[in-house]
Amino acid sequence: MTERMTIRHLLVATDFSEPAAAAVDYAAFLAARLEARVTMVHALEFSPWSADARQSDTALAGREEGARFVRELLEKVHSTRLRGVRTHTRLVTEGRAADAILLASRSSASDMIVLGTHGHGRLVTSLIGSVAAEVIRNADQPVLTIRRAVVPNQSIQRILCPVNYSTAARRALDRALYFASAFDAELLALYFEEGEATDEAIESELERMRRWIGEVPLSVRLTCIAHRGEPGSQVSAFAKSHDIDLIVIGAQQTGDGTTTTIGSTTEALTRRAECPVLTVPTRAATAQRATTRQLVMTGGVG
After folding, report:
1. Which of 2, 5, 120, 242 could form a disulfide with 126 if both were Cys (CB 3.0 to 4.6 A apart)?
2. Which CATH number fits domain 9-151+287-299: 3.40.250.10, 3.40.50.620, 3.30.200.20, 3.40.50.300?
3. Global confidence as pTM
């Protein structure tokens, strides 16, 4: 591995939806196996509490009552879903969901962000795909997304890592090797040959992959696969047909100072894959922009 890493602190975002609950459950599973701690974060966005609301006694009383209610919910989630895991909760007010998640991750020095997508919470703008995509585009740390409302298989036996010889793929491979070692899982490194590739071309590509990957820990069972097809549309189908429990993919982040984008294959995969997807950034994200409102964080149980 070209870069040593350990995961000791997970940040999991919740909006109390089913996908968020699945994300919390999965974070608890990872934390128990990796001996990591968990910080849970929830962002309050409903309009009566906006920064523009008048600070009347009634508004302040409503704000305090709502914050107390949400903290109680967070504590309930902590006690029932994260039993036995070292946990801290954070309530973030007056901030957009993506900004709140990113700021909480940076301020708490988390090693990985975990969130559910396509949820619909009653209290907050839900963590739908657009929020997940924004977090992935700007995150400093890997982001694990749980797409389905159904709790994913809480075991990691087979890991898929698509590669294309880029820096993004190298960073993703490093983390895939880490998870494969930690969970004693089989790792499949997958390269897609586009067009009509011959058998000789496939074999040549496999040799190139082995040279590019180099030495791996003896504890890791690695299989190199060169597959005919186009990665953007076929990675999720390959994962489903091969019983993959976790996909690890690099995010080729590019930006112009005001916006950040990621590769189309990565973004499509986070929306389509049925198993959890770990997206690994290639660079530190740009600083939070001036449009971010002031965020107020309050501690919880832990």
Report:
1. 120
2. 3.40.50.620
3. 0.81
